[in-house]
């Protein structure tokens, strides 16, 4: 097998050219060249060749962040801010020194009443529906039914109200930064 140097300076093994036949009717596909201004560096700054495509060095210090693997069996559901939900802390806040919090919310029963208008004190709350559905309304007047596979980013301090869920809803919730306070608030004007 022959070898040559790639764009990043590393060895690329190549096989000897072999005449290949295309099936009848098949056409050759050619990729366009990179967009103007896109540069491919010949070498990364790490002379040992141990850097990634973005120039970062694997193994470089990540202050305050630690590897955290959480097994479902090791993170029991606990009571939280809503009595119709149980919450499972995934240990992300500890692993990131509070930069991010992650938890799974699971329905104990279907939502028996809306949460009421409230805000979260954080930069943002991200939700991803794992199972079932949830319907939320927001201060801008929009209402969204989110089903399994749907996600949403709610900016911190944005007024919202969870108005209904399926009996089996499960939601992955992340907040940035990790500590997230919740305060009830008045409904937006005209949305009482």
3D architecture notes:
With 192 residues, this protein is mainly beta. The chain has a domain at 72-184: Jelly Rolls (Sandwich). 2% of the residues lie in helices and 35% in strands. It contains one helix and 13 strands, in the order ββββαβββββββββ. The protein has one helix at residues 92-95, and strands at residues 2-5, 11-14, 78-79, 85-89, 101-107, 118-121, 124-131, 133-138, 143-147, 151-155, 160-165, 170-176, 181-184. Strands 3-4-5-12-7-10 form a six-stranded antiparallel beta sheet. A three-stranded antiparallel beta sheet has the order 9-8-11, with no helix packed on it. Strands 1-2 form a two-stranded antiparallel sheet. A hairpin with a 5-residue loop joins β3 (78-79) and β4 (85-89). The longest helix has 4 residues, at 92-95. Residues 40-46 have low confidence and may be disordered.
The secondary-structure element order is EEEEHEEEEEEEEE
Low-confidence stretches: 40-46
In CATH, what is the class of the domain at 72-184? Mainly Beta
Relevant CATH superfamily of the domain at 72-184 = Jelly Rolls
Report the principal-axis shape: globular
Count of helical segments? 1
Structural class: mainly beta
CATH-level-2 architecture of the domain at 72-184: Sandwich
The order of strands across the largest sheet is 3-4-5-12-7-10
Number of strands: 13
Overall radius of gyration: 25 Å
How would you characterize the largest beta sheet?
A: 6 strands, antiparallel
Mean pLDDT across the residues is 80
What fold name goes in the CATH topology slot of the domain at 72-184? Jelly Rolls
Helix content, binned percent: under 10%
Give the DSSP E fraction (strand runs of 2 or more residues): 25-35%
Task: State the end-to-end distance.
Answer: 73 Å
């Amino acid at each position: 097998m022959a070898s040559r140097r790639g764009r990043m300076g590393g060895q690329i093994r190549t096989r000897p050219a072999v005449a290949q036949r295309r099936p009848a009717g098949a056409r050759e596909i050619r990729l366009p060249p990179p967009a103007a201004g896109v540069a491919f560096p010949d070498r990364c700054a790490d002379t040992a060749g141990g850097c990634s495509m973005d120039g970062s060095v694997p193994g470089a210090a990540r202050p305050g962040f630690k590897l955290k693997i959480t097994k479902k069996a090791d993170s029991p559901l606990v009571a939280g801010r809503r009595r119709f939900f149980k919450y499972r802390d995934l240990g992300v806040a500890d692993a990131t020194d509070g930069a991010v919090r992650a938890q799974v919310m699971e329905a104990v029963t279907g939502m028996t009443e809306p949460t009421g208008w409230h805000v979260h004190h954080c930069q943002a709350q991200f939700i991803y529906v794992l199972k079932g559905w949830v319907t939320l309304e927001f201060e801008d007047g929009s209402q969204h039914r989110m089903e399994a596979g749907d996600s949403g980013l709610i900016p911190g301090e944005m007024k919202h109200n969870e108005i209904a869920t399926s009996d089996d809803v499960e939601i992955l919730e992340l907040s940035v930064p990790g500590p997230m306070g919740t305060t009830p608030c008045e409904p937006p004007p005209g949305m009482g």
